[in-house]
């Protein structure tokens, strides 16, 4: 059951239909022709789900057009209350993940994290943990020293070199630069292509 203070924030401060009606199962979709995906998510306990979060309103005070891509966001967001703590689940849908896509995913995770931190105050909650998820059909990582993109191979000024994308992927972690390097738990969700080849489907269970 959603707390009274949280419901007040939803009813009075957020745009219409920002969250779906609360359920314990959701069918989340990526509808772009280049990577149509359908993910069935089962989640335990009280939760809030923002489907198509990348098309929802964001904080307009974030810079537009900067190298940090702060107007980007993940595809879907869930907030889960578990043992009096709130967990933020950030879901990005891809067909293939490689070094460049991993860099883009980090940008989306960062921008979404900033926006949801602002949402905390609107809902009157505190986020205690962040988990990231990437759905995918296949990967194509390459050694970082072979990249010609300086944004991928260079460490942020004054900061240590982030782990290689493939190593982070294998270690179920994703590091994000928010002024300091923070690391979130990351789960790769393997998808299967339908027989007609038109979309990817998969399942995710969040306990």
Biggest β-sheet, characterized?
6 strands, mixed
Biggest sheet: strands side by side, in what order? 3-4-5-7-10-9
Query: Hey, roughly how much beta strand do the residues contain?
Result: 25-35%
Structural class: alpha/beta
Total number of helices: 4
Helical amount among residues, as a percent range? 10-25%
Account of the 3D structure:
The protein is α/β, with parallel strands linked by helices and 207 residues long. It contains four helices and twelve strands; from the N terminus they run αββββββαββααββββ. The protein has helices at residues 4-13, 99-123, 150-153, 165-170; strands at residues 25-30, 37-43, 47-50, 76-82, 85-93, 96-97, 127-136, 138-139, 173-177, 181-190, 192-193, 200-206. The strands form three sheets. A six-stranded mixed β-sheet has the order 3-4-5-7-10-9. The chain has a four-stranded mixed β-sheet with strand order 1-2-12-11, with no helix packed on it.
